[in-house]
Amino acid sequence: MEAKDALDRMLKVSGQSRAGVSVSLGRHRNFITSSLNREPWNPTIRTFTSIAEKCGYRLVLEGDTERIVIDI
Asked: What is the C-alpha to C-alpha distance for residues 21 and 55, in angstroms, rounded to an integer?
């Protein structure tokens, strides 16, 4: 899944808006929308993890025998 699609899914499932999550991160209400309008959208791990956490998700690296949860 592309990062943009994952973000939209997290927002939809959590019932939150881009503006609401942006403000809860201490950013301008258009932060997520304006970031997504840039091509390519290449968020830092910190930004993506922060958005995921605000939506009730975790960023996880999954290998064959190990799972690593990314914390910020």
From this structure: 8
What gap in Å lies between CA 63 and CA 19, rounded to an integer? 34
- Cβ pair 4, 51 in contact under 8 A: no
Query: How distant, in Å, are the alpha carbons of 8, 57, 64, 67 from that of 36?
Result: 10, 19, 32, 28
Could you tell me which residues come within 8 angstroms of residue 67 by beta carbon, excluding any fewer than 6 positions away?
60, 61
Beta strand pairing call for 59-62 and 67-70: antiparallel
| Residues in the chain, pLDDT under 50 | none
Specify the pTM.
0.86
